């Protein structure tokens, strides 16, 4: 059985200022137990998709099934299986991180002892033990966000929706959260995660989807995305080349030392050879997911509106 | 989740939202009983002392009715500003349990004020155990009605800014204009029926009866002056608000 199957999902928001088509015929499949990354620019439709899939928002058309249950008609059963970190939710002012985690588990039907043990584990894993008895109102923004994420990850719900869970967290905290997310996935949870930190997506996600303007542009692995956009290697040239000369091999942009070229594997030898002849130092490495993402989405924007992209 | 776990969940919400909230910011409950207490003080200063018992019962009913205002504010706040309601409703917790848990926490906030007014009632009229029980019953029914109305109203808001003026208008007109703080007998006999246009009048008349104060004839039909009319009115309103909020609640945005 699949974790999530979306078929032809569309959403049009209607308001006083006209209508917005946030999702347009989205098809997506997430295998059960997969840690799935959902990427896209601001306003691309990620939160809208998560809200529909977690029974918080009605789709305009199309269906989403979670573990084979239709999210519109079987919302009650689906709520037994899910937990969600909404984008930009905030904790209760007066409760401590421990109370948030423990009380939320109790509300979800976990026994007092199990809730306490689970809270111990999660608070430690997320670096919150030093703050566990402080009311949320005196915690910093990143610590408040960690509290919410701890609450939701502690549930180990079969399907976890995480909408920008690491927003505003420091690099140490992010890594702690990654580890807890991985652990949930290892224990069998299916995870749908959105993030604008593409290093995070690369670290965590076994599979990705990229959405732009309500359309899914890509679904597959990060590596396959790089091949798909024909940007597998980055070559940094410390001088000696012009942007024009390199432009025919791929995307060129200036960096601190000279120029960076994003291109395919097969031209590496030719170009490094030429650089050696000109006695120019080069640096060859893999393209990051962020670079592949920029290329993919950049091209989609260009197709849509050639003026805007230049 | 079983019924037992739902009951535990309701109790936990009441504990962390109501009891812990009260313990950690006591100013909130002082604010709640300060308004009815000042009304009572004015009555004491300017009105004949025979109306005073009505003022005390009025204070009790005002407190019970304002749980609705608190409910409206809290529910809209947790849904729109904190967005933490979303975390609670995307869980095995039933929507009705969330509403009940929230409503119970509002009751917790009101208990200190209620205790105060009950104490004052002892001073102004002879009250027996039956009076207390009857009044507590009326307070509980009123609380159910007011909080279900409060929740219902909270579901209409899309922004927090709209909420303060609307709360003032709705709950002040429910508790100040109808005969809550004054005897219904003050209204000319031909218009007394009109007081029942306010949903709060059923409850306040029941409370006046429960406290053993005098209730005048309401209209030509004897049913209008009967306790059955008031009980039925209160129960029907409570059910109507609850059913409407279950249907209209934004568990899922349109
Ligand atoms: N309640 C709403 N009413 C009207 N339009 C909305 C509403 N919510 C979202 N939109 C619009 O729908 C589109 C998709 O928004 P959505 O929040 O799903 O984007 P997102 O991918 O989550 O963006 P971000 O990365 O900024 O969180 C945007 O154009 C947005 O303006
Ligand atoms: Mg979003």
Folded structure, characterized:
The complex is a heterodimer of chains A (310) and B (254). By secondary structure, chain A is α/β, with parallel strands linked by helices. Chain A has helices at residues 46-53, 75-79, 97-107, 112-125, 141-154, 171-186, 198-204, 222-228, 243-247, 268-277, 289-304, 306-309, and strands spanning 2-15, 18-31, 35-40, 61-66, 69-70, 82-85, 159-163, 190-194, 207-212, 215-220, 233-237, 251-254, 259-263, 282-286. In chain A, the strands form three sheets. Chain A has a six-stranded mixed β-sheet, with helices on both faces. A four-stranded antiparallel β-sheet of chain A has the order 2-1-4-5. In chain A, strands 12-13-11-14 form a four-stranded antiparallel β-sheet. Chain A is globular, with a radius of gyration of 22 Å. The termini of chain A are far apart. Chain B is mainly alpha-helical and 254 residues long. Chain B has one domain (3-247). Chain B is 70% helix and 0% strand. Chain B has helices spanning 3-24, 27-46, 52-81, 85-89, 95-124, 129-154, 163-175, 200-210, 227-248. Chains A and B meet through helix 2, strand 6, helix 3 and helix 5 of A and helix 1 and helix 4 of B. The complex binds adenosine-5'-triphosphate (ATP) and magnesium ion.
């Amino acid at each position: 059985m699949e974790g999530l199957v979306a078929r032809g999902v569309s959403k049009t928001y209607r308001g006083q200022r006209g209508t917005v088509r946030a999702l347009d015929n989205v098809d997506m499949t997430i295998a059960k137990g997969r840690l799935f990354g959902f990427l896209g620019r601001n306003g691309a439709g990620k939160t809208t998709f998560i809200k529909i899939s977690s029974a918080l928002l009605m789709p305009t058309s199309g269906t989403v099934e979670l573990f084979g249950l239709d999210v519109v008609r079987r919302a009650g059963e689906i709520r037994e299986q899910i937990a969600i970190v909404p984008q930009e939710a905030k904790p209760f002012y007066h409760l401590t991180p421990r109370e948030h985690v423990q009380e939320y588990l109790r509300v979800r039907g976990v026994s007092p002892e199990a809730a306490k043990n689970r809270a111990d584990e999660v608070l430690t894993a997320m670096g919150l033990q030093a703050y566990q008895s402080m009311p949320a109102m005196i915690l910093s923004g990143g610590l408040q966000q960690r509290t919410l994420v701890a609450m939701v990850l502690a549930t180990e719900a079969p399907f976890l929706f995480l909408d920008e869970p690491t927003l505003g967290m420091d690099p140490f905290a992010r890594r702690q959260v990654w580890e807890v997310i991985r652990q949930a996935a290892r224990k069998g949870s299916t995870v749908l995660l959105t993030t604008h930190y593409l290093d995070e997506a690369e670290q965590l996600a076994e599979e990705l989807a990229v959405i732009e303007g309500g359309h899914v542009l890509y679904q597959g692995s990060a590596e396959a995305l790089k091949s798909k956009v024909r940007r597998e290697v980055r070559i940094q040239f410390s001088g000696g080349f012009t942007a024009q000369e390199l432009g025919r091999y791929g995307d060129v942009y200036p960096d601190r030392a000279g120029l960076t070229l994003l291109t395919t594997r097969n031209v590496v030898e030719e170009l490094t050879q030429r650089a050696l002849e000109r006695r120019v130092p080069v640096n060859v490495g893999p393209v990051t997911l962020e670079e592949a993402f920029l290329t993919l989405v950049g091209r989609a924007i260009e197709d849509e509106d050639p003026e805007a992209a230049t | 989740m079983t019924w037992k776990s739902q009951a535990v969940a309701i109790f936990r919400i009441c504990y962390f939202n109501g009891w812990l909230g009260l313990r950690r910011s006591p100013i909130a409950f002082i604010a709640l009983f300060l308004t009815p207490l000042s009304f009572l003080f004015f009555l004491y200063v300017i009105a004949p002392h025979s109306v005073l018992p009505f003022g005390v019962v009025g204070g009790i009913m005002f407190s019970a009715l304002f749980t609705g205002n608190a409910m409206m504010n809290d529910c809209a706040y947790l849904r729109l500003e904190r967005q933490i309601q979303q975390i609670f409703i995307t869980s095995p917790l039933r929507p009705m349990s969330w509403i009940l848990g929230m409503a119970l926490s509002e009751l917790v906030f009101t208990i200190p004020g209620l205790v105060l007014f009950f104490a004052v009632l002892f001073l102004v009229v002879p009250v027996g155990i039956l009076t207390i029980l009857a009044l507590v019953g009326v307070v509980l029914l009123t609380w159910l009605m007011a909080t279900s109305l409060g929740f219902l109203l909270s579901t209409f808001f899309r922004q927090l800014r709209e909420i303060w003026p609307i709360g003032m208008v709705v709950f002040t007109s429910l508790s100040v204009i109808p005969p809550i703080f004054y005897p219904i007998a003050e209204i000319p006999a031909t218009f007394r029926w009109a007081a029942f246009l306010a949903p709060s009048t059923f409850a306040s008349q029941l409370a006046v009866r429960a406290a053993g104060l005098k209730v005048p004839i309401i209209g030509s039909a004897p049913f209008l002056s009967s306790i059955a009319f008031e009980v039925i009115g209160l129960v029907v309103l409570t059910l109507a608000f609850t059913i409407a909020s279950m249907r209209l609640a934004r568990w899922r945005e349109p």
